[in-house]
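Handout, page 2. Input:
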Amino acid sequence: MTAIAAAEQSAPPTNDRRLLLGVFAVLGLAMAVWGTRLPAVQSTAHLGPGQLSLVLLGAAAGMVAGLQLGGRLAHRHGPSRLLIVPAMVFGLGLALLGQCRTLPTLIAAAVVFGIAHGLLDVGCNASAVHCELAYQRPIMSGLHAAYSIGALCGAALAAVTTWMPHSVLFAMVGAFTVLAAVIAVPGVRASTSLDHAPQRPEAVPDKVKPAQTAHATVWLLGALAAACLLAEGAAADWSAVHLHSLHSSEATAAAAYALYSAAMSAGRLAGDRLTSRYGAPVLVRVGAALGAAGLGAALIAGSAPAALLGWMALGAGLSTAMPALITAAGRGGPRAVGTVASAGYLGLLAGPAAIGAIASLTSLTTALALPVVLAAAVALASYRALESR
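Output:
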């Protein structure tokens, strides 16, 4: 009996991992549907660009608040508590956004949607850190790959349902999200690793760090997360514009972000195996250097084929960076996850605007050097930040 109990205790929590794969995938699916159908939201509510930015600002403010609140709640009650109710509110918030027709109601719904997103983000990432520790091998990159694949499926779903009113699509995806949360309740209750990882002697040295360096490391991880997500925001908002400026067709321009996303998904699918073999510090440093060199060379070449390859290189190069940063932050507790995620999303939100401002003063090619510089900075600084964890 003792041997059986020991074997069960040491077995990896595969059910918990499957549960988290589903959470990450549904989160990516819903976010992609929301982002892809934003033009329909704008058109239905008769919003100008400035008014739409207020809606997005409401969602961003809610998300940052949710991340900070989620860090405290997860620290006090355990991150698994943030997987069910926030997911339900997240789905209901998406459905509500589809029904709003005025600016005030859209802003209010966006704030609720953002808060739920932030809470769920902390819950799934902090739970993933614990699950990864229980596995005793890297799994974070694969979980983030599920988010990327979910986002690709969401974008494809939105593209093939353009004939459908966005309110109906939002309601369908929102209902699916709520249903998925309900189905996940037994799995969360039966989980063995989402709120804590088994204590192992070999894991203790990684957790015992000088108090005076902990906060500095968390802020460094946050700065690196902001740099990575700024580059992701640049790809989402400016890659097609970049290709269009090189006299590409609309189809070719649209393919730039698709190739970036596909390369990032592929990199994350292989990321856990590569992390096990080479270690996160080496993998992130080499990947970020590859991304910086690829996009930098594309900007210098100034041709459409080079640009497509450059955005692919950036996606593949940064694919394992955020999973590694979240893993490193998570070992400092859920609050550290919230802090690093908040910094990252601020970079995601501020990056496209910063690139636009620089482009208006100089040129788009010069402005797109910003993600190149930041990817290079990640290559230089990430090794020490990840190694110190």
